[in-house]
Amino acid sequence: MMELRSTLAGRIVLTAVATVILLFLALPIVVILVTSFSNNAFASFPPDTWTLNWYQALFADGSKWPAALSLSALVAALSTVFSLIIGVTAATALTRSELPLRSAVYALVLGPLVIPQIVTALGLFLLFEPAAMLGSPIAIALGHTVLAAPIAVLILIATLRGIDERLEDAAASMGAGRLTIARRITFPLAAPGMIAAAIFSFITSFDEFYISQFLSSVDTVTLPVQVYNSLTFEIDPSVTAISAILIALAILALALVALARWLGSGRQGSLLSVENTAGVANPGGETV
Amino acid sequence: MAALTTTAPARPRKLLASRKTRIGILYALPVVVYLLVLFVYPIFSTLFLSLKDTDGALTLHWYADALTGVNLSVLFTTLRISAETALLSLVFGFVLANAISRLKPLWAGVAMLIVVVPHFISALVRTYGWIIMLGDKGLVNETLTGLSLPGAPFQLLYNELGVVIGTTSMMLPYTVLLLYGVMRGVDRRLLAAAASMGAGRITIFRRIYLPLVSPGLASAGLLSFILSLGYYITPALMGGPNQTMIATLINQQVMKENQWNGAAAQGVLLLLITFAGLLLVKLVTSLGASRRKRSAT
Amino acid sequence: MAEHGVVTPSVETAGAASATTTGKALSVVALRKTYGDVVAVDEASMEIAAGEFVTFLGASGSGKTTTLMMIAGFCEPDSGTITVGDRDVTRLAPQKRNLGFVFQQYLLFPHMSVSENVAFPLTLRGVPKNEIRRRVGETLEIAGLSGFGSRKPRELSGGQQQRVALCRALVYRPPVILMDEPLGALDKKLRDQLQVEIKTIQQELGLTVIYVTHDQEEALVLSDRIAVMRNGLIEQFDTPRELFERPRTPFVADFLGAANFLPGRIEQHTDAHTLVRLDGSGGLLKARRHDLAIGTPVKAAVQPGRLRVSAPDDGFCTGTVETATYVGTLVRAGVRVDGDDAPPLRLEVPAGRGPVTGERIGITADPDDVNLFPTEQGG
């Protein structure tokens, strides 16, 4: 392909096409951010006048958004805690011990990530419906953990693999017990990975739609379900504002992950290297 | 003097193998129990439900239902839209990954960021962005009208075009990341070697480059196909009645018609197609691995 | 679970094993380790005195590292015992053995500064803060690292990192320090320099060290005694001089000195010497006295540096110089011996009066430099 580089025209065409594709990815997001400040939510673009009305409307009396927001936050927080507990133990088992049936356990962990979410959601519905747990935040959090925990496990496996196991041997040779090694060696080195695992578990749960929809009841509706409902049934212009907030949260979360990695690793590499961004996208470092 | 290599033997570092095994089992317990109860068991109960008649007897008629009439055409629609999505995201992904792999590191990082960030934004939100953009007075139609293109504004929403635009933009980050990895793995010296032997640009591309990346292309395409199969949000919000996909049907049967058995049968079908696709991915990957091994020797 | 409280040896124990301790520091009895059908270490036994520098020397797969790992506790022996001082540590976890370990890959804790790394083992032992500061400072000074205390490991060069690792292993004065090819990752010049430093520190502080390497020269420079290992067996455990001059097996003779092996038969004994009739050249080679029956087929081992040039027909054999390579102070020569179709005899002679290619020379050897091995021993 280095040969193709030789023609200027080819290069220009390729760059132009690539730019269009990048716009294809970025524009829907930019449009929401801009529209959320537009006076006339459904009219022309770019907007002629600006406003903060849609943001104010989110918290007006009778608005459904605050309840949905706090439910999603609660569920995501619970799910993050579950995922971290499962993630730390599972990653330890998979990287630091002799585990029989290791590949079976690994396949089980990958399962929820490759199976259509609607199938997982249907199964969870069949599990929780007879238990009369539909609409329970605990049930929704337990369901989200099925998706979030594998992500946490993959991130923490990559994290633990990145920590030279022999550092733990070195500490042991000096007389450090297992708890001391965990507290003074492994944990400080794994902290950026744990932060990343927590953040990705949180976003996974916060944005999850399928399981939430199957497990929600009339009065317990998570934020994504509320967004979906307002897009299908009741056109509520505030949905643009809430979408913009969701975008901002996602970007903030990614920035936090990148920052944690950068601070933690102390590597001199740039925050914006290809490896770094690709590493964020593929946190487990595994492809299916 | 005998030349001695420094290659260290496999470090014999395992202390008390049995204890390490016990710790491993103890630590693996939470994830295994959790997923068995909340993931594997529910899937099996879905399977049982799909085989159970209303009176509890064993039956296949839910599957017969799922594979006839409207349900069958929904299944075909699902396969068609997934195939279109896979093809488009593969082509776009190839072009973009190729362009990024030639950029200077800083610009490649910026481009990668634009690819990666949307991936972490809720699909629902991105779909909404498309709805705003593709409406009669949305950005796209305004631009096209502004360019006084004949026929503008176009109907870009609530039809198959809208759905495929939406699903393709959801799948694109996957294919770009996968293909970028594959392209970085191609040994550029092979291409230089071919050029030194007098091969032209097109020959090098067709005979050397493409064979090297084709397993990656195949698995990326298959993966986006599999992932599109279960899509619900985008077809439901951006499609018309003719773009109903299987996930929508499952949802309707549970939420509106209380027809769990039928939903379960369709879920199992979706699962089977997914497994078949994953099997193909595995096949293609091992094929690619053996090809790489051969090219390395 | 092995917990911290149980693990911590008291400060007194750590301090007691100091330079002045004499007698046995460590002993290993009939240590054996197998991996499946492969015997990694076969009945290794040895006793190491306090203040001694002992090296395990061998190629990869010889069992040297496995033996070290068993002493450290990272690998459990199938049978045998390991005693540190008077304490049987065979079945103890590494953290309970109170040994020091220096790894080839340094393994400094990346999130701690140099000082924190060196202080780490002391904090585990509950040493008071002032004491820690004093001992860390002292130790860094010994290794020439004063002023580097606040740096992070990644800001140091490889040689400096390994010095820190050394400090970290000796700061708590463990009775024995184990080193696993600590200089393996460094370049030749740095390696030579650090060898001298390690030896100096070891002697000054009277440390007991067990060192693993595959580099003969390094072993010779550093060690009081060397255990030459092959296929899981200790071939010979002796001082460098003994190994060099009185190798007990052809392998040792070859491994340390790259000896020439001349096949022959025992012809005759005198009071002090044994005479060997060489197979190829038919010459008579005089060796020091070996108790072997007349007529026994043997291999006579002589190191290239111990062969001398004489006038033709004046030595135990005569030949033609085939190759002569000048290597600094030495000339390495290959001599085709008359009547012998074996590969050329290798000689190393001082460069001044070195032979030239094509020259006819005789070859002699001091009987004391000739070691005989019955051919049945193989090799």
TrEMBL record, chain A:
It is found in: Cell inner membrane; Cell membrane. GO terms for cellular component: plasma membrane. Belongs to the binding-protein-dependent transport system permease family. Residues 69-258 form the ABC transmembrane type-1 domain. It comes from the Bacteria. This is ABC transporter permease. InterPro entries: MetI-like (IPR000515), MetI-like_sf (IPR035906). The keyword Disulfide bond does not apply. Coiled coil: none annotated. The chain crosses the membrane at residues 12-37, 68-93, 105-128, 134-160, 181-203, 241-263. It holds the Pfam family BPD_transp_1. Keywords: Cell inner membrane, Cell membrane, Membrane, Transmembrane, Transmembrane helix, Transport. The lineage of its organism: Bacteria, Bacillati, Actinomycetota, Actinomycetes, Kitasatosporales. CDD domains: TM_PBP2. It is a multi-pass membrane protein. One of its GO terms (biological process) is transmembrane transport.
From TrEMBL, chain B:
The keyword DNA repair does not apply. Keywords: Cell membrane, Membrane, Transmembrane, Transmembrane helix, Transport. It is found in: Cell membrane. Residues 75-281 form the ABC transmembrane type-1 domain. CDD domains: TM_PBP2. The chain crosses the membrane at residues 23-44, 81-99, 106-125, 161-182, 208-233, 263-284. InterPro entries: MetI-like, MetI-like_sf. PROSITE patterns: ABC_TM1. GO terms for biological process: transmembrane transport. It is a multi-pass membrane protein. It comes from the Bacteria. GO terms for cellular component: plasma membrane. Its main location: membrane. Pfam families: BPD_transp_1. PANTHER family: ABC TRANSPORTER PERMEASE PROTEIN, INNER MEMBRANE ABC TRANSPORTER PERMEASE PROTEIN YDCU-RELATED-RELATED. This is ABC transporter permease. It comes from Streptomyces himalayensis subsp. himalayensis.
Automatic annotation (TrEMBL), chain C:
The keyword Transmembrane does not apply. SUPFAM superfamilies: MOP-like, P-loop containing nucleoside triphosphate hydrolases. The keyword Transport applies. Residues 26-256 form the ABC transporter domain. GO terms for molecular function: ABC-type quaternary ammonium compound transporting activity; ATP binding; ATP hydrolysis activity. InterPro entries: AAA+_ATPase, ABC_SmlMolc_Importer, ABC_transporter-like_ATP-bd, ABC_transporter-like_CS, Mo/tungstate-bd_C_term_dom, P-loop_NTPase, Transp-assoc_OB_typ2. One of its GO terms (cellular component) is ATP-binding cassette (ABC) transporter complex. Keywords: ATP-binding, Nucleotide-binding, Transport. It comes from the Bacteria. Its EC number is 7.6.2.9. PANTHER family: SPERMIDINE/PUTRESCINE IMPORT ATP-BINDING PROTEIN POTA, SPERMIDINE_PUTRESCINE IMPORT ATP-BINDING PROTEIN POTA. This is ABC-type quaternary amine transporter.
